[in-house]
Amino acid sequence: MDIVIRQAAPGEYGTLGEITAQAYLHDGLLDFGESDAYLRELRDVAKRAAAAEVLVAAADDRVLGGVTFVPSGGPMADIAAPGEAEIRMLAVAREARGRGVGEALVRSCVDRARTVGGCERLVLSTQRTMRAAHRIYERLGFVRTPERDWNPLPDLDDITLLTYELTLSTTRD
């Protein structure tokens, strides 16, 4: 399967939004199911594309997954500091998992971060249960940064997001 990583086209926003929402729902990453406010954010690819770069992985003209790349701590950034870019909302369709789609998306973000002037690190947040994603990050040279872990919903103690970073100047593919 030849995977192509490219900018999401407006006609693909609905498909990618649903892939992202379903990935989070089926993996048990949303506590409130279909009524979760974050689920609406996951589906709103047009909003993300207006504020960051939304990339899709496609094969045979079919969207298999996507990711949001936030250069230079843009408005979509959760944790990026000056000199950092951020990866957000990585998701792969259930039927495309295990085929290198997630890794191809992350590699594309690493490549993009290297082209951003002044960008020294690529950062991301992830949930504890996203173990397959953790393996991708670690395989690509990301390291855990527990001092940056954070809780997007302070009222709920059990939603601490783990953080990773990749220092770009010392990475090799």
Could you give the topology of this structure?
Elements: E1 4-7, H1 13-26, H2 37-43, H3 45-51, E2 53-59, E3 62-70, E4 84-92, H4 101-115, E5 121-126, H5 131-139, E6 143-144, E7 162-167
Parallel strand pairs: 4-5
Antiparallel strand pairs: 1-2, 2-3, 3-4, 5-7, 6-7
Helix pairs in contact: 1-2
- Per CATH, the architecture is 3-Layer(aba) Sandwich
Structural class: alpha+beta
The major beta sheet can be summarized as: 7 strands, mixed
Number of strands: 7
Mean pLDDT: 90
Protein name: GNAT family N-acetyltransferase
Domain N-acetyltransferase: 3-169
EC number: 2.3.-.-
GO molecular function: acyltransferase activity
Question: How would you describe what is shown here?
Answer:
Its EC number is 2.3.-.-. It is an enzyme of class 2 (transferase). This is GNAT family N-acetyltransferase. This protein has a single domain (4-170), classed as 3-Layer(aba) Sandwich (Aminopeptidase). It has a 7-stranded mixed sheet with strand order 1-2-3-4-5-7-6. It has 173 residues and is an alpha+beta fold. 30% of the residues lie in helices and 25% in strands. The chain is built from 5 helices and 7 strands.
